[in-house]
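This follows on from our talk about sequence and fold. Can you supply me with one protein entry, sequence and fold together? Could you add the entry underneath, on a fresh line?
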Amino acid sequence: MTRDEAYQEYEESLSRISNQASVAMEVARATLHDRLSVIRNALHEELKAIRALDQKTKRSK
């Protein structure tokens, strides 16, 4: 293998690694976004329940 061939192989390997890292980052971002959406929705439902209880408590006083 010549020096040029070795360098070409090195460059191709770096490119593959970079592409794999980009894909992994996008998957991680999408997963995090989905999980945060679930948490946000759950907290929203809890807040609605707390407010409803608070309103009932205020009315009964």
The chain has a mean pLDDT of 96. Residues 1-61 form one domain.
